[in-house]
From TrEMBL, chain A:
This is aminomethyltransferase. GO terms for molecular function: aminomethyltransferase activity; methyltransferase activity; transaminase activity. Substrate binds at E215. GO terms for cellular component: glycine cleavage complex. Gene3D superfamilies: Aminomethyltransferase beta-barrel domains, Aminomethyltransferase fragment, Probable tRNA modification gtpase trme, domain 1.
Automatic annotation (TrEMBL), chain B:
This is Glycine cleavage system H protein. InterPro entries: Biotin_lipoyl (IPR000089), GCV_H (IPR002930), GCV_H/Fam206 (IPR033753), GCV_H_sub (IPR017453), Single_hybrid_motif (IPR011053). One of its GO terms (biological process) is glycine decarboxylation via glycine cleavage system. The modification N6-lipoyllysine is found at K59. Signal peptide: none annotated. Residues 18-100 form the Lipoyl-binding domain. GO terms for cellular component: cytosol; glycine cleavage complex. It comes from the Bacteria.
């Protein structure tokens, strides 16, 4: 028997696998640890399907401390960030969070990220496997008077699921600034600072599962106590990276390094929503020329969702066929625990991207029938 | 009936000239939730080391090698609707296929239970 595990950075295997603040906590709880983005990370606890379904029904706690947490501050920081991000940063109000992209000059996607206006600075969360390149890219393109700080001693926890608000509510967080909303009142893509007792936390109502939930930035030395307190709530179980992947796939959310790369552009990727109206009119961000041209002219390929017949899954790299013609390639695929059948994301030729188009996926010499479907595969349940 | 094991975590239980093949309990634990099993066709000829069977888990597809050469005599049809049998009954009801042995001498290269348990212990 042989396994083909996919890793996020197989071409850049680090010399030494690093540990994160919750390493011991995961091991104590019986997690199976794997190398991911240069760190030891929990891939599963009791089993991916059970963890996945628990998160959809209750609340799951995810350790995503491998992600890069950055702050950008200084005179003119909003307009400086607009030179590298296609988002309307000037219109992003304090306490608001937005999805954005780092683009190359050629319009390729270097990373996807979350940017939050924290009042006196901006807070960015970037992918773990790309964070060092992202920091280099940002430093290269931001003026010297903008201070970029890597919060490399902070952990990041995600609490996701329909019972997340109830569970976090039980911890009695207090807004750090009078007049700011309680955690229960935060709306999707809103953020604020809190105190859990003496412990400062940065909390946003966001996540990567399609469910309601929070992402919580915490000092490394406080991370284990916070994880412990959350998992002491009856609604909460710790969840590994395996279920994180199946949850985000069902939610139709792309994963950098798989569904997004420097070879993909925001328009083909279906991420044109991340390029604000004003920025489309004005341009002036890295990669603007090719991206605005793609918006105007359309693209050769489109990222689509595929629903497969039968039980066999199609994985990353599988060819998508229409008759004898190769029309695309799967970028993520697997068994959907919530739907009980396989699903996939693929880039396919634009004329094969319409909902309902019947295609086939080549898996181990067989042709699996598949149909283009609208994503998300499982409806989002954000708190708006 | 004698059961033999491979370093690739297959088992084969031999009775007369027929061997029943599956993956070990250790292997199913490593793979996690099995969602689909691709079985060979009955009557197919397989050679030792071929991968006539694929086990799909949530995270990956894994080849299953046949520990012996021969003709596929029967496949476990129950797995079509209940692939999770490979998790719950890896070394009994979750068997994959039966082979009519072409060369019983091939069994000599396999491990017995004690040797396999020691092998797993060493991983």
């Amino acid at each position: 028997m042989s396994e083909n595990f996919e890793t996020a950075n197989d071409d850049e295997a680090p010399l030494e696998v690093l540990t994160l603040p919750l390493d011991g906590w995961h091991r104590q709880r019986g997690a199976r640890m794997v190398e991911f983005a240069g760190y030891w990370m929990p891939v599963q606890y009791e089993g991916i399907i059970a963890e996945h379904l628990w998160t959809r029904e209750h609340a799951g706690l995810f350790d995503v401390s491998h992600m890069g947490q950055l702050t950008a501050s200084g005179e003119g920081v909003a307009s400086a960030l607009e030179a590298v991000l296609p988002a309307d940063i000037a219109a992003l109000k304090p306490g608001r969070q937005r999805y954005s992209l780092l683009l190359s000059e050629e319009g390729g996607i270097l990373d996807d990220l979350m940017v939050t206006n924290r009042g006196d600075h901006f807070y960015l969360v970037v992918n773990g496997a790309t964070k060092w390149d992202d920091i280099g890219h940002l430093r290269e393109h931001l003026p010297d008077e903008i201070t970029l700080n890597h919060l490399d001693e902070h952990g990041l926890l995600a609490l996701q699921g329909p019972e997340a608000a109830e569970a976090l509510g039980a911890l009695g967080l207090k807004p750090a600034i009078a007049g700011m909303p309680e955690v229960a009142e935060l709306k999707f893509m809103q953020a604020a600072p809190y105190f859990w007792g003496e412990v400062p936390l940065g909390v946003s109502r966001s996540g990567y599962t399609g469910e309601d939930g929070y992402e919580i930035s915490v000092r490394g030395e406080d991370a284990a106590a916070l994880a412990e307190a959350l998992c002491a709530q009856p609604q909460v179980r710790p969840i590994g990276l395996g279920a994180r992947d199946s949850l985000r796939l069902e939610a139709g959310l792309p994963l950098y390094g798989h569904d997004l790369s420097e070879e993909t552009d925001p328009v083909s990727a279906g991420l044109a929503f991340a390029i604000s109206k004003r920025r489309r009119a004005e341009g002036g961000f890295l990669g603007a020329d090719p991206v605005l041209a793609a918006l105007a002219d359309g693209t050769y390929a489109q990222r689509v969702g595929l629903a497969l017949e039968g039980r066999q899954a199609a994985r990353e790299g599988a060819l998508v066929m229409s008759g004898d013609a190769e029309v695309g390639r799967v970028t993520s695929g697997g068994f959907s625990p919530s739907l009980g059948r396989p699903i996939a994301m693929a880039y396919v030729a634009a004329d094969k991207a319409a909902e309902g188009t019947a295609l086939e996926i080549e898996v181990r010499g067989k042709r699996l029938p598949a149909k283009v479907v609208t994503m998300p595969f499982v409806p989002h349940r954000y708190f708006r | 009936m004698t059961t033999y094991y491979t370093e690739d975590h297959e088992w084969i239980a031999v009775e007369g000239d027929t061997g029943t093949v599956g993956i070990t309990n250790y292997a199913q634990g490593q793979l996690g939730d099995i969602t689909y099993v691709e079985l060979p066709a009955a009557g197919a000829t397989v050679a030792k080391g071929d991968a006539p069977c694929v086990v799909d888990s949530v995270k990956a597809a894994s080849d299953v090698y046949t520990p012996v050469s021969g003709e596929v005599a029967e496949v476990n049809e129950a797995l079509a609707d209940a692939p999770e049998l490979v998790n719950t009954e890896a070394e009994s009801g979750g068997w994959l296929f039966r082979v009519k042995l072409a060369d019983p001498a091939e069994l000599g290269a396999l491990m017995d239970k004690a040797a396999y348990d020691a092998f797993v212990e060493s991983l």
